[in-house]
Amino acid sequence: MLASQPQDAIPVLIDQGDSDQFLADQLQPAVLAEAAPPGR
Q1: Can you tell me the distance from the alpha carbon of 3 to that of 35, in angstroms, rounded to the nearest whole number?
Q2: Which domain holds residue 23?
Q3: Fewest beta carbons within 10 Å, which of 1, 9, 28, 33?
Q4: pLDDT one-digit tens code per residue, 1-37
Q5: How many domains, the chain?
Q6: pTM, full prediction
């Protein structure tokens, strides 16, 4: 829905530490970055 109206999108900041035990296996920041690139 937001992809069709990007002017209404709310900026999102996701902040987690590098020592987060769930970072690589569960949070997968690279997958999120691929799914929601800047300006999209």
Answers
A1: 11
A2: 6-35
A3: 1
A4: 555 666 777 777 878 788 888 888 888 888 888 887 6
A5: 1
A6: 0.47
